[in-house]
User: What shape does this take?
Amino acid sequence: MLRHKAIETPSARDDAAESADSSRFSNAGQLSSGAAAGAVEDAQATGTLEVEPDASLRKRALDIVGAAVLLAFFAPLMAIIFFIVRRDGDPAIFAHERIGKGGVPFQCYKFRSMVPDAERVLKDILVCNEHFRKDWEADQKLRNDPRITAVGSFLRRKSLDELPQLFNVLKGEMSLVGPRPITADEIKRYGPDIEYYYRLKPGLTGAWQVSGRNDVSYEERVALDVDYTKRWSFLNDIAILLKTVGVVLIGRGAL
Assistant: This one.
């Protein structure tokens, strides 16, 4: 059950994030400025809702226990992925600013799945290819993105590139289940529905993932986030976690 609680809130998909930040992991703790800061400031006047204290504690307990168990289980695999991705000399992990609960920015971690200097490559693609440019303007991502490496394609298909976000969950910046993490530039695309996004922490998985991620439009993704927040329950989180296992195993809707 959700109850109203007013609070003060400070203020491209992962492809833009990765291309801009893959070489700056060591500066992951710094917050970006400029347009992102302006978008965050716009969010400060927005009210938010919070989960009842007992339900919030159950959700947080699930996050801590679940993330700790998953990190212990996947630690050997994460080490292997780290060294494979690191072979080209660029950082294996990148961090990019996302908007969290209440509009608070945080650094979201992922394994790098693109070629080095992906930002420059993206600019060249958008200038030379009208089809890719339309894709990017519509959804802030490219279908069949030529910047994705062979290893990166496999990591994305199995959602293994998102494993470092378990550290975000342990830090309390994300939840195992929640709305899709968005950038400051995406706030305006939510319109008045951004209020619902601010109510809960963004998730490692969520309704958007088990519903086919790449197979739904941006507007449908927003609608899924809103519906998830309105109908939030502990049991629904468990159900989404179980569905996620199946989605990852068959690769349906993988990025």
Summary: Residues 1-13, 22-49 have pLDDT under 50 and may be disordered.
